[in-house]
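Fold this: U-box domain-containing protein
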Amino acid sequence: MPASLEPLDLGVQIPYHFRCPISLELMGDPVTVSTGQTYDRASIEAWVATGNTTCPVTRVPLADFTLIPNHTLRRLIQEWCVANRASGIQRIPTPKQPADSALVRSLLNQISSESNQPQTRLAAVRRLRGLARDSDKNRSLIASHNARKILLDIVFSNHDSEDSELNHESLALLVIFPLNESECVSVASNSDRFKYLSHLLFHSSMEVRVNSASLIEMVVVGTRSPELRAQIINIDEILKGVIDILKNPISYPRALKIGIKTLFALCMVKETRQKAISAGVAETLIDRLADFEKCDAERALATIELLCRIPTGCAAFTAHALTIPLLVKVILKISDRATEYAAGALLSLCSASEQSKKEAVAAGVLTQLLLLVQSDCTGRAKRKAQLLLKLLRDSWPEDSIRNSDDFACSEVVPF
């Protein structure tokens, strides 16, 4: 192996032994395998994950797949980064070491043992939560040790207590993992468990409220039984709690993300939509629409379209002065899916109200729709746009096309 230095695009030479033999990139987390060779952790893990059982450099079969952190080499690399920071080299952070099975088992045993002191169990939950946040690999390892069942039992034990930190911390850890169908059914089929979750939606801690909404969303999505879903939506406090979460300041972005995700899941159940409208969801969605990030905005617009499929929903959204202008504005602005949902909502609103037609035309919907039908959007979005153009033809001003420079070369003509 040559000991010379190789040039880098930045004009800085990286010592050969600082590069991973697989990726040829500067190593951020060097680890040594059973043959004595050192690789970057991500590279050697990817090598093994694809079915390779030999050392990439020596081609000798690996006696085992244990990866030993090479702390000495990592410190040398970090020192080299610091020495060359004037050349634009950033110091690699000290990597967090992955959890091992023995540690995870020990922590779960501490958590599940009711003979332990509450503070001991609480500390173990927090330690495990920290490990789960570190990497997907840690989460997979923790989940493989039956963690979800243990956490579910703790979350819903002694929940009559006014303030149980252990329950709340266990809930925060539980929602990191996706639940399987049987676990969702175990929650959905127990009315006391769901009433407890609805109670947590009004907790003084925003984190507890959001984690409760997150678990509700997982259970609703993971439950296929119409009977169990009906049982869930009969708890009126759930919708009110989720809507209240959406009303919180945008300084807590996770509240918006989980809130709209949960609301959308609930509104996918048809029987929920009337309850949502009665709970005042229309005003909240329109007031918050501009605050959502891309994926969340798509969910918000999809929810609006679902709610506009019922007469009371149309009436509620029509009553908000900003509904039509905002829906017209977001066409072609966020994503293809968002465009489709916005066009669908406008189609429902304009089909139900002459006033909505006038507002849409005044907001410039004609321009947006003509652009839409000529764009690369989805076929469903174009069909909705064409139906909306046909619906609005009697509301167009006479000179709306003739005096428009934007569509002088347009092949689209009024219906």
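The CA atoms of residues 156 and 192 lie 9 Å apart. The beta strands are 5-7, 13-15, 30-32, 38-40, 68-69.
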